[in-house]
Amino acid sequence: MRLLLVEDSPRLIELVGETMRDAGWRLDAVSSLGEAEAAISEREHDLVLLDLGLPDGDGIDLLKWIRQQHAGLPVLVITARGSVDERVQGLDAGADDYLVKPFHHREWLNRCRAMLRRNPHAIQPVLEAGALRFDPATAELTCDGVMVALPPRERSLIEILMREVGRVVPKRRLETALSEYGQELSSNALELAVSRVRKRLQPLDTGVQIETVRGIGYLLRTAA
Predict the structure, then answer these.
(1) Based on the number of CB atoms within 10 Å of its own CB, is 219 exposed (0-12), middle (13-18) or buried (19 or more)?
(2) pLDDT (tens digit, 9 = 90+) per residue, 62-115?
(3) How many other C-beta atoms are found inside a 10 Å radius of the C-beta of residue 176?
């Protein structure tokens, strides 16, 4: 899952980022209408979290643009505008849900999960490779039913490799998928993530191994 946060508060960006990554979701964060339009046009997102008070304009205008250009993209408005008229305006402009600041992180995380469940394009099947099982809905990785703890980036990496089991995934594709908008992942960081996943899986009887295809990318291969 990749979400877009449109918010100009550095502190809220930090808090949302921590919670989203812990949930196993990739997050792009931008702080203006212009950056948001560029991010939506350049990358595919499963959900937009939209603040309405932005430095270069009103988030309602972005919401209307999303409904015109990307009609099926779910939008959760997160804002300090809490009057009934303001809520109605946001919903009339195309918001799928509306959450007033301040709010508890558990509430908006559950709101996000509920919206993603309602979006048929975001529903993804459980992935299996060897003894590994990855549930995209919960970002939980298990081996023979036992939970395998991995940091958020490494969880995203094994998810991508499991989606392409038996096929080579190019390094550039992995770097792009694991990066955040405006913060590209380096080759060294990708290699470190692969190394960490290998180290975590090595003592387990997974029935799979991550192979390096030199100069091209990585391959998750199941045992013959």
Answers:
(1) middle
(2) 999 999 999 889 999 999 998 999 999 999 999 999 999 888 888 888 888 888
(3) 12
Q: How far apart are CA 223 and CA 208, in angstroms?
A: 6
SS3 label, residue 216: coil
Cα–Cα distance, 125 to 123 (Å, whole number)? 7
| 3 state DSSP class of 149 | coil
CB 223 within 8 A of CB 148: no
- Radius of gyration (Cα) for the chain, nearest Å? 19
Tokens 């023979």: give the residue.
144
Calpha distance 51→48 (Å, rounded): 10
Backbone φ, ψ for residue 197 (5° rounding): -65, -45
pTM of this prediction exceeds 0.85: no
**In whole angstroms, how far apart are CA 17 and each of 14, 69, 148, 187?**
5, 26, 22, 22
Q: What angle separates helix 171-178 from helix 152-163, to the nearest 10 degrees?
A: 140
User: Which two three-digit tokens encode residue 29?
Assistant: 């964060």
Q: 135: helix, coil or strand? A: strand
